[in-house]
Amino acid sequence: MKHPVQRPPGSDATEPAEAGPRLRKSRVLGIASIAASAGAVIVLAVATQVAVQATSEEPDAASAPIAAESTDENAPEKAETLAPPAEIPAAYDQLAGDEVAYVRFLVSQSADFTAGSDLFGGTGLQYLSTDVADPSFHSDGQRRLTLLYYDYASNELVSFLVNVTSGAIEEVQRGTGSQPAPTDAETLYAWELLLADPAASAELGTEFASYTGGAALTRDAASVELSAHSFTTDAASFGAESCGIERCVQVLAQVDGGPYLTTSTYVVNLSTQTVLPVS
Amino acid sequence: MTKRFGALALAGTIAAGGLLLVPISGASAQTVTEASCSGESLVQETLDAGSGWEMCWRIDTYRGLVLDKVAYQPRDEAAPIMVLDSIALAQLNVPYDTGATEYNDVTTYQVGGRRLQAITDVDCPVGEVRTAWTDAARGEIPAICIGEEDSGLAYRSNITNDAVYAAQGTDLVLHTVSRIGWYEYQTEYRFHDDGEVSVRLGATGDLSPNDYTNVVNQGWPLGEGDTDHAVNHYHSAFWRVDFGIDSAEEQVVEKFDTDPTGEHGTTGDTGHTAILDTQLTSVDTEGKVIVDNREAYRVVNPDSINADGHARSYEIIVDRDQAYNLNPETDYDIAFTSAKSDEVHASYNLIPRKANQGVTDYIADGETLEDPVAWVNVGFHHINRDEDQSPMPIHWQGFTLYPRDVTSQNPIIPEGRKWVNGDMRGVPNPNIPTTPPTTAPPTTPPTTAPPTTTPPTTTPPTTTPPTTTPPGGGGASTGAVEFGSGEVTPGSTQSVTASGFTPGESVSAVLHSDPIDVGTYLADEEGDVKFQFLVPTDLPLGEHRLVLTGQTSSVTAEGTFTVAGATVASVFEVLGNTGSNANVLATVGALLLFAGAGLGFAGWYRRRHESGVVAA
């Protein structure tokens, strides 16, 4: 069904007195129409471009972040399978994210990994780091990475030399007494243990309140930035004599605005999950 | 991200962030460095002086910035010469003077990984920012600044009647920034155009907010009056330097030891100038040393010989008396060990087979040195100052790797000084042509009859015009000089224009035939040189040649002009150039002439008008 076109009032072409304004209006409308159409074309073009870019800018597996901790749900160590990286970097190239994920997965498939325990007592070693293994000690030009894990079951540092090119674990070393820098998970866990310790929690809470106008110090306090260093006992530290053989950390807690809470009087023994006052 | 096999950035010029990274020219085959890394990891740059550096870089979780396969290409060499297999921080030990606190930042905090800071514009005002995948949580971040920076005077030598041989230098600089607790560190490597390498660590950020003491002698008062003593502390920075001079199969460590003989010379201002004796001995076994006064160490490749027949080496230059010689981890300036894959950190080693060991453990067996690695420890005792409060001005510690006989001369030598090699006493400067002695014509005619000659049976040889070697020992090319005037008078100003030089280089200007230095000028961005000089008043009349020599490019340009006797016009010109008094006089004279002419015209007009009236 068709409907007759209804002319608007005053649109009769037989009314010459109004022809001028009508024409001007019509011209204005025509220009507006053209402008709108052009605008639409531009918007569509931009939208298309954005869509194309969005499609083509999929995260690059070589440069994107991956799960930082072997205890994360989406950790490469927990993957059922993981393909090798599409391209293998040259021997001296910097790290690529996809190769790091791949070698972590390879390590997780080894008996050395599954025999160990992580920070929380779960099966599998605690991941620490991946780095390029010095290529000058190999003459074949193949890509090799060194991975460090910590075995909380035996308090051993475990290293894996993995050949990315061949997909083989070429060497596993174990040693005691060496404590690399803690991971974010270890740092956060040490912080939780500190806050769970009545004495430490009371001291830190009072200090935190003085900086924040009385706010309560909780695990999730967004106004605290955490970092930590591994702690090895020395002659000046009384109370943490086992640290070094066991894995200990000292937490730095910076409150918004710059001040650091006084955490230097405590060491957290992650191996025994205890808070140690030191002097 | 382009760090992949087959993605070599060799084919062209990479322009990014205003920095031009130009592949080093002259080497057609793939270099060792090019074969070792690719894409973003490969740095190649030819510096303004024409020399260049290439290397691979990466970020290590603990050590931070690691440089591998570092090679230097002197300007006139056909290919890069390997210098280092690798260099990186190996430990950063920070004990506080109260004895209550001690940190080992490389191993227990990390300098790379999660501690590496994303480079911002303020971190990298000159050069290019490149990215690196640093840690799992962040993935790829802007990690390093790479740029060519001015380094000041490279050399200067004012050779009488020849030229002022002078040039400004540049460095290829790579640096990263790490945040470790309240401190922030800049790791910097500075590769000079003359082959030197400056290795530095800069500390900034904040002093420890938790380390104040009541013991006055263990800190420095930062608050008002004698209060708030911030604890003094040491920063002992260690670098592991794995030499690979000219891709050596074998390198040796040698020690320079200069001692007084006990005897004295008889000349000199003091009258008792000591006679010194420098012994060079090889260091054959692993060990560590506090470097003594007048003592130095170098690593030599005995099989790599420069053009003068000398073995190429690099010397380690360290400040003395700065080591924290109070525990076995830090009580040395330099230690030498044989390179081993499980000896990575200077102390608290993280490789399980040698867990927690350090240099003192590595050298304990006194093993024979093979493939020497130097562990360089630079201590800095930080006695705090008021000025060091937040944000703390950056303070530096580091050392220098100094090329010794890598090239037979200055690797960026100006062309005009290439003739100087060794003891040149008695050898005239070839840049200054000598005038052959004039011989008087014979005063008596020959008394012997001229010999009877037979026509030559051979065609006389065709002679080619002699090729003149431009002063400066043979430049790359010779261009023309344009003068403001082909004929000038003594004392007048001559304008000079020439082109074809390297932008920014120094260009010497020498008048011939009696060499007269008329100055050294800088070529502009187009490689053009424009200047004026005052024609010496005692310059003989006749034709003179001006020779311009680019001190970096060796390009020369020359042209001739004539010095003529004074004319009326030249006198006016000289007057005009001599000073304001002459100008004033000339101007007043011209005004008087003009006024006179005007008065004359007025008189004439009046006369004519008056006569007209009379006539009417």
CATH architecture of the domain at 76-175 in chain A: Roll
Helix content of chain B: under 10%
Number of strands of chain A: 8
Average of per-residue pLDDT values of chain A: 83
CATH class of the largest domain in chain B: Mainly Beta
Low-pLDDT runs of chain B: 1-23, 444-475, 568-597, 599-616
Low-confidence stretches of chain A: 1-56
Portion in strands of chain A: 15-25%
- Class by SSE composition of chain B: mainly beta
Spatial extent as radius of gyration of chain A: 32 Å
Largest sheet of chain A: 4 strands, antiparallel
Assembly classification:
heterodimer
Please provide the ordered H/E string of secondary-structure elements of chain A: HHHEEEEHHEEEE
Architecture blueprint of SSEs:
The complex is a heterodimer of chains A (279) and B (616).
Chain A: H1 19-56, H2 97-108, H3 111-114, E1 126-132, E2 144-151, E3 156-163, E4 168-175, H4 184-196, H5 198-212, E5 224-230, E6 248-255, E7 266-269, E8 274-277
Antiparallel strand pairs in A: 1-2, 2-3, 3-4, 5-6, 6-7, 7-8
Chain B: E1 14-16, E2 19-21, H1 32-36, E3 42-46, E4 52-60, E5 64-73, E6 81-95, E7 102-104, H2 105-109, E8 128-135, E9 139-159, E10 163-180, E11 183-192, E12 197-205, E13 212-213, E14 219-221, E15 229-231, E16 233-243, E17 252-264, E18 274-283, E19 287-289, E20 295-305, E21 311-317, E22 334-338, H3 359-362, E23 372-382, E24 392-404, E25 478-480, E26 482-483, E27 487-488, E28 493-498, E29 506-512, E30 516-522, E31 529-534, E32 542-550, E33 556-563, H4 568-578, H5 580-615
Parallel strand pairs in B: 25-33, 27-33
Antiparallel strand pairs in B: 1-2, 3-4, 4-5, 5-6, 6-7, 6-16, 8-9, 9-10, 10-11, 11-12, 12-24, 13-15, 14-15, 16-23, 17-18, 17-20, 19-22, 20-21, 21-24, 22-23, 26-28, 28-31, 29-30, 29-32, 32-33
Helix pairs in contact in B: 4-5
